[in-house]
Amino acid sequence: MAFVTSFLWSLIVYLLLTAGSGGIIAWSKEELIAGFIIAAIIGYLTRNIMDEKLEYFFNPKRWLLFIIYALGPFFFAMAKANLDVAYRVITGKIRPGIVKISPGLTRDESRTLLANSITLTPGTFTLEIDEEGNLYVHWINVPPGKEKPTPEELCGYLPKWARRIAE
Known about the structure:
The chain is built from 8 helices and 3 strands; from the N terminus they run H-H-H-H-H-E-H-E-E-H-H. The chain is mostly helical.
């Protein structure tokens, strides 16, 4: 079952990424053959991972929460950060630095979601996640006295959403 799930997931992603390449509906015959071969290889190589994470990964509640997160809170955080970075570029008021935050997330999936959200938000870049789950983030403007910020000071409500979606 894990191979089939991984194969189908890989094939769907491949077909979405190559849509419009030609002949048969939206793909050429060669593209479909390549897609099946690549999806079969990926399905075989990731079958053990998918076997462990199948119920977790395909939980509809997680997907719904992720969609709500992407269209709402994350979109708002990105818009706000874009305005902040534009202000800092125009005024030259920056104080860059690397800070460490401890969001208290226990799963790799939630840590990855938070790290990617931070990196996609302008003005911040996740450099590393250590063994304890602490994130090291390059921040465009570290306020004086905030060299050890709380997760909320750095990225607002994003850690709560990462916990809600992936823990």
